[in-house]
Amino acid sequence: MSALVKLVDVSKRYADAPALHPTNLSIERGKITVLIGPSGCGKSTLLRLIIGLIEPDSGSIKFDGESITPDNIDVLRRRIGYVIQEGGLFPHLTSRANVLLMARRVGKSQEEMQRRLLELCKLTRFSDQLLPRYPVELSGGQRQRVSLMRALMLSPELLLLDEPLGALDPLVRASLQKDLKEIFARLRQTVLFVTHDLAEAIYFGDEIVLMNEGRVVQKGSVTDLREKPADPFVSEFINAQRGVGLT
Amino acid sequence: MNSVHPTMIGRDRQPRRPRPSVLMLLFLIPVVAVACASANPIIMGSKKFTESYVLGEIARRTLIDAGIPAEHRQGMGGTIILWQALRGGQVDAYPEYTGTIAQEILKIDHELSLDEIRNALGKFGVGMTEPLGFNNTYALVMRRGEAQRLGVRTISDLRKYPELRVGLTHEFLDRQDGWRPLRERYALPQQNVVGIDHALGYSALANGSIDVKDAYSTDAKIGQNDLVALEDDLQFFPKYEAVFLFRSAMRADAIAALRRLEGTLDEKRMIRLNAEAERTKNYTRAANLYFQGSIGSKNAVGESFPHKLARWTLRHLQLAGFSLLLSVVFGIPLGIVASRGGALGHGILGFAGVMQTIPSLALLALLVPLPFFGISARTAIAALFLYGLLPIVRNTASGLQDIPRSLRESAVALGLSPVVRLCEIYLPMASRSILSGIKTSAVINIGTATLAALIGAGGLGEPILSGLNLNDHVTILQGAIPAAVLALLVQWLFDLLDRVLIPKGLRI
What we know:
Number of domains of chain A: 2
Structural class of chain A: alpha/beta
Structural class of chain B: alpha/beta
Strand order of the largest sheet of chain B: 7-6-8-5-9
CATH class of the largest domain in chain A: Alpha Beta
CATH topology of the largest domain in chain A: Rossmann fold
CATH topology of the largest domain in chain B: MetI-like fold
Strand content of chain B: 5-15%
Helix content of chain B: 55-70%
Low-confidence stretches of chain A: none
Radius of gyration of chain A: 18 Å
Number of helices of chain B: 22
Mean pLDDT of chain A: 89
Oligomer: heterodimer
Distance between the termini of chain B: 71 Å
CATH superfamily of the largest domain in chain A: P-loop containing nucleotide triphosphate hydrolases
Largest interface: A-B, 27 and 23 residues
Number of domains of chain B: 3
CATH class of the largest domain in chain B: Mainly Alpha
Number of strands of chain A: 10
Strand content of chain A: 25-35%
Strand order of the largest sheet of chain A: 6-7-8-3-9-10
């Protein structure tokens, strides 16, 4: 099994401080990789580098063996789905128009788009009756389902999720977690999932990447992290989260 | 000379070079549309006071009666604006006074003979008729009864009554040929001298708050208020013989027609015409009085009020509409550039801001001397366009800047091209802000377009301006009320447009 995304010595600095120290990381095909760590550890930066919202200061990022450059980024973006915490839905477009936005641009036929749309509604458990609604007319959970449909519309090889459930209340969150896991399994989707919640990471992650202060601290299964911590920070992070989980 | 092609004579005398830029062509559309509205008649100009209006009307009527197409641009402002317009060819002729020509145009401080003036004007390509027959100079006036009681007949007689109170217009107080040198020449002893508005001065004189004031010798109010003009026994005031100035290149039959007016208007007659104009608020009717007894042509009778109102309103909407169109066409792209910040963005916002801080009158005055503009509707449109820019540029820029970063990034991450992002995501999201900028700009334009009348561009400012000159509230309201109603209608229309143009998802 080969890596779909490969980061080699990738680093990024913002004006005042380094956001990501030179980092190597592979995202394996068909697996769910979870990036976890405290706020400001560089996990979102890593995601934004892959989708090309920011450019690395050094190193290279390869997608399916091809280096990401400003020239090919727009083509590659069609092979990557991206969902953010706030959903990122455009308020002036209906749910349907939001989902079909890019499909229309790449010249999909009406029937093809309609078929895919209904397929996605079923997959994400979103009622097709709600498709003519605008984002403000939907609940937070519904909005994230539409956002997920938009990301999956062109059947991307990679799905990037930046704390997609972070803004939802616990009940909605739990039901969406369950649905998401089913969807990923059914699609055998390659996913890079950013969260700061260890329970969520354990629930989804085939592979967990723990980050701190712009560096990858340890990569492995949850058992690896628990039993063979690479660093005192790993144990500290796991114990802190467990403590919160117990109360 | 009669065979000169009429199109050679109009306003657009500068050769037009082909302009490749599409934007430039867009800019020209309204200008050409307005310029083509009439076919090159002789353009009479007049300054913004009653007598000048009446003389302009008389000249127009004379030309038309001679079979020469003519238009009258009423009340185009002061001496310098009209002089520039005459030299630039935007007007072909206008009434002027010899004293003003010597002092304000030729800048010579001693009195000149008519021939000296004519020679000096010839160097500018401008001709002058012989005097029309009256001298409209300054005069000092008193209540007739008071003057008789004191035995004051000449200005020298004032020396005997140092207790008389004097009320003078501010202009007269400051003029080279005004109060200070007058007092020196006559050794006048009066200490109680105040500055007062011309129209108010007449009321002050009538109710006895002042005893002496300055006036124009042909002012109709002298007769109406039973005043007497004191004789200038030391010949202090220079002569202000009324004449017409015309472009030497004007068609010969038009010059001949104007010259037929020479020596036909004495002071009494002019006073009567001025009185008629102020009484009826109708310059055309006053001008017709001049022709009474000669040919009574019907076509020059004043147009009906609804017709006038329609003409003013249509022109007003043309001015405001074309300028708004230009503001939108240029403002939105400039706003898009400005939204990206940087030196260029700040520069654009700064420029639009500065444009708006220039007083509208000053902006008009600054544009008039430029070769392409002059006294015309295009100057008014250009000024209104510059005024309308800021609200549109600023609102476009801020509307775009207010789009949350997460949504901008979502559009990028989807793989949409920059053009699609702008047209289908960013601009629709900023539409509410952009539209409200356009609305502000439209309302400002409707209001400011009333000033266009100052440079003869017409519109609802025309009755406002004549009303101001006549001190007649009804005439002012004839322009002010429709302008206010128009502004409200435009506001309402844009509220309606909001519902059509702002995407539904942004209105819920």
